Amino acid sequence: MTEAFDDVMRQYIDFVNQQVGAYMDALAGFSGHCARVERQIHRVNRPVRSDVDADGRQIVVWASYEDPTRPDVIHNRIIRAEDYLAANASGGSNEQQHARAIVVFLFTYWEDEIRPRLAIAKRVPVNEIHCDAMGDLRILRNVILHAKSIMRPDKHAELKKLRGLFAIDEPLNLSYESMHKIFVAVKQDCGRLFSSGLVSQMHRLSRRRSPTLRFRRVVGQTRPNKRIQRPAQHRRFAALLAAGDARR
Known about the structure:
Elements: H1 5-41, E1 46-52, E2 58-63, H2 81-88, H3 93-122, H4 132-146, H5 153-158, H6 176-207, E3 213-218, E4 221-227, H7 232-247
Antiparallel strand pairs: 1-2, 3-4
Helix pairs in contact: 1-2, 1-3, 1-6, 3-4
């Protein structure tokens, strides 16, 4: 059974919303890591007491703000503290890596999964399912995967909706504001496709014959002769059209 056009569009919009949530949660995680490491760097250990034991060795007691129930070091990777802070800071390499992955994921799922299903639902070739925002995502994907995230002049000129977000011959800087505009552009174009799909569906239904009732006269009496059966969906649509004509 063929899927409805609007059902497929709703599925993709839900997918976009999931990526928005994952992106926001990731930013919160990066910020939390950065704050914890900054606190760790600025902790102050200070000697509070100094004694000499029976063997003549000096014993120094240190006090700090560390939690004594937790280990001093959890080895995840070896990295300088300033490099770690830079990677997890706002706009840092971790945020950029995550944002680029989302851009690639959004377009790949659209191109390989959603777009063919929309074409089948609308009974048109795949090439007729298109929008400017997805075309821009295709360009960004190519820049990320094949140009080391450097926006070349020819690719920049091909952008339609997102051209103002990126500089020529510079690495893609997918800031929070840029990602917000990308998500908005994608949802707006999805809304336009959704509306166009409903309009085309209603147009196809309006061109079909609506339910009619034929009569014959028998000695001054009028009674039904034959009723043309139509699916329930068509009958409801015909009723809406009739109601509109009555209001005119």
